[in-house]
Write a structure and sequence with these properties.
Diaminopimelate Epimerase, Chain A, domain 1, 18-stranded mixed β-sheet, single chain, alpha+beta, globular, about 280 residues, about 15% helix, 18 strands
Length: about 280
């Protein structure tokens, strides 16, 4: 099976061309190849599939084999792969995901896609659609006890669920200790992606992320979008922010049309062949 390793801000996935390759057991393959000691090493597996609804379809699996609805860094790489390999014409293309069809606009130089702007659609704020069992129509800067501590959280879905926590001292957050507690808290029946955020200015934030099914990652595109929405809702930031993550920066805007737009890099690392 031929594959391509790609990343967006260090959020890395193994990509398989479903137009030419067949994957019999995607969850199992995701678990095996994602292992950073005995596999290729990645945050998960993304299969680029044919579809009649759009130019291509993104089928995403986390490192633990669970299915993900959407991946902001992953979808930029899907756009790059599809355009550069002729699966879609570009510079504009439509990508079907489990969270709906997303529009990608590629910046192309000398035939190579350097960055991609994705229309991520409108954020979902209804608590029951996140989903969370917290008793409120919308969860905005509300208290939640996790373990022995109380946090104030804002919940946003960008096709997948996010909890945003604003903190003063980001370096003191022990992601490995607190991340799994948030992810598996009973208030989140579908598990949750959690983002700890320091506001540097009204237009700049720094984020550390714990992703459900993958753990601490270097970047989360949908999470950066959720952070932008949460910052605006709580009046901590403006509606357009630069988001600094361990892997680099994303430019996010919650525009007047209620859609969130994400712009960032997409990088191909290497190609190879995995024994079937």
């Amino acid at each position: 099976m031929k594959f391509t390793k790609m990343h967006g801000l260090g959020n890395d996935y193994v990509y398989v061309n479903g137009f030419t390759e067949r994957v019999a057991d995607a969850p199992k393959l995701a678990r095996v190849i994602s292992n950073r000691h005995t596999g290729i090493g990645s945050d998960g597996l993304i299969i680029i599939q044919p579809t009649k609804a759009a130019d291509v379809r993104m089928e995403m699996y986390n490192a633990d084999g669970s299915r993900g609805e959407m991946c902001g860094n992953g979808i930029r790489c899907v756009a790059k792969y599809a355009v550069e390999r002729g699966l879609a014409k570009g510079p504009s293309l439509r990508i079907e995901t489990d969270a709906g069809i997303k529009l990608a606009e590629c910046e192309i130089t000398d035939g190579k896609v350097r960055s991609v702007r994705i229309d991520m659609g409108a954020p979902e704020l209804a608590a029951r659609k996140i989903p969370t069992t917290i008793a409120s129509d919308r969860v905005i800067d509300q208290p939640l006890r996790i373990g022995a501590s109380e946090y104030r959280i804002t919940c946003v879905s960008m096709g997948n669920p996010h909890a945003v926590v604003f903190v003063q001292e980001l370096h003191k957050v022990d992601l490995v200790e607190i991340g799994p507690k948030f992810e598996n808290a009973p208030e989140f029946p579908g598990r949750i992606n959690t983002h700890f955020v320091r506001v540097d200015s009204p237009t700049h934030v720094t984020v550390r992320t714990w992703e459900r099914g993958s753990g601490a990652t270097r970047a989360c595109g949908t999470g950066a979008c959720a952070v932008c929405v949460a910052g605006a809702l709580t009046k901590r930031t403006e509606r357009a922010v630069t988001t600094s993550l361990p892997g680099g920066e994303l430019r996010i805007e919650w525009a007047a049309d209620d859609h969130v737009y994400m712009t960032g890099e997409a990088v191909e690392v290497f190609t190879g062949e995995w024994p079937s």
